[in-house]
Amino acid sequence: MAVTGGASGIGAAIVSAFHAQGAKVVFFDIDEASGNALSANLGENVSFNALNLTDLDALTTQFAQAASIFGEFDVLVNNAAHDDRHDIAAVTPAYWRERLAVNLDHQFFAAQSVIPGMQSKGAGSIINMSSIAWRIGLPEAPAYVASKAAIEGLTHALARDLGADGIRVNCLLPGFVRTQRQIDKWLTPEFEQTVMSNQCLDRFIEPEDVAAMVVVLASDVSRAVTNQTWVVDAGWT
Ligand SMILES: NC(=O)c1ccc[n+]([C@@H]2O[C@H](COP(=O)([O-])OP(=O)(O)OC[C@H]3O[C@@H](n4cnc5c(N)ncnc54)[C@H](O)[C@@H]3O)[C@@H](O)[C@H]2O)c1
Question: How many Å apart are CA 26 and CA 202, to the nearest integer?
Answer without folding.
Answer: 35
